[in-house]
């Protein structure tokens, strides 16, 4: 284990422990699998490049964000620690399947294909947007406008699937070149260096990142005329772990009902993404989420 990972995990444990000053809910705690109650820990995989959901604070060690706050509140009510480990986005699902993580919390979209291999606890709404250089030099208004350009997104993400779908729709004389990146920050570096003309990202992540981008160098902006893959984001849990799934679902619903959930969303400027009911594997509600222009 690297020293940075150890410090990060320790910080997550301490943060969850501090939250446990709040009252533990015995009914919610009783829903947890016995093994987790005994261990006192839920192991979570996250890609810390997803602001405002999961990202490093200015010390480049402490994880902060909306999902971190939700996890801290759940830890307080369940009486266990949420121990976060950083991982590349595309590696988290295989790690859950292999039993290395109990949960995946990293701005994951819910879609029907993903539900076949994992259970997804739907706790917020999101969409995918187009990111361009400031001034929009290629006059991109919708995804069909990117044919003939170079576009990129994170490996294993819905934005990448959208790009691959659009690639198949572009005419032969205007092919779309699609590049994959391990993280969102690397895609943005590629745009500023001229390797990419456009990138796709979660709207909430993009809006927060671009509002806090460096004041020097090339600026990026979010195209406000189109949004794709509108649907749920959720917390991932293995198909073999229904007790944990149901405990997390019930805890989040209790947080909605008593107002704690809404306060966290308001803190991070995402109140418009909030839901009133926590569902599981509800992607069919948004069956046309992969629709393009």
TrEMBL record:
Record-given protein name: ABC transporter substrate-binding protein
Any Pfam family matching the protein: SBP_bac_3
Segments forming domain Solute-binding protein family 3/N-terminal: 41-272
Keyword Methyltransferase set for record: no
SMART domains assigned: PBPb
Keywords recorded for this protein, A-Z: Signal
Organism encoding this protein: Inquilinus limosus MP06
Gene3D superfamilies, per database record: Periplasmic binding protein-like II
UniProt keyword Zinc-finger, yes or no: no
Listed InterPro entries: Solute-binding_3/MltF_N
Signal peptide range in chain numbering: 1-21
Regions that span the bilayer: none
């Amino acid at each position: 284990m690297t020293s940075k990972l150890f410090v990060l995990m320790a910080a997550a444990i301490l943060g969850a422990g501090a939250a446990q000053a709040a009252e533990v809910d015995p009914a919610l705690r009783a829903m947890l699998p016995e093994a987790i109650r005994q261990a006192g820990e839920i192991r979570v995989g996250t890609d810390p490049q997803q602001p405002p959901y999961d990202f490093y604070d200015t010390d480049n060690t402490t994880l902060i964000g909306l999902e971190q706050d939700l996890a801290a509140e759940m830890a307080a009510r369940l009486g266990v620690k949420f121990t976060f480990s950083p991982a590349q986005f595309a590696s988290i699902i295989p790690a859950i399947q292999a039993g290395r993580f109990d949960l995946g919390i990293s701005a994951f979209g819910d879609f029907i294909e993903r539900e076949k291999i994992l259970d997804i606890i739907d706790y917020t709404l999101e969409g995918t947007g187009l990111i361009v250089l400031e001034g929009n030099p290629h006059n991109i208004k919708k995804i069909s406008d990117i044919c003939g350009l170079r576009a990129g997104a994170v490996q294993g993400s819905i934005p990448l699937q959208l790009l691959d779908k659009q690639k198949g729709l572009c005419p032969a004389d205007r092919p779309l070149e699609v590049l994959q990146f391990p993280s969102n920050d690397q895609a943005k570096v590629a745009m500023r260096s001229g390797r990419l003309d456009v990138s796709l990202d979660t709207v909430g992540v993009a809006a927060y990142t671009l509002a806090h981008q460096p004041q020097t160098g090339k600026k990026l902006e979010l195209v406000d005329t189109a949004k794709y893959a509108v649907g749920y984001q959720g917390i991932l849990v293995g198909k073999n772990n229904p007790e944990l799934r149901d405990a997390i679902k019930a805890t989040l619903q209790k947080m909605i009902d008593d107002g704690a959930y809404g306060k966290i969303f308001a803190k991070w400027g995402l109140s418009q993404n909030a839901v009133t009911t926590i569902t599981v594997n509800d992607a069919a509600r948004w069956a046309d989420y992969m629709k393009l222009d």
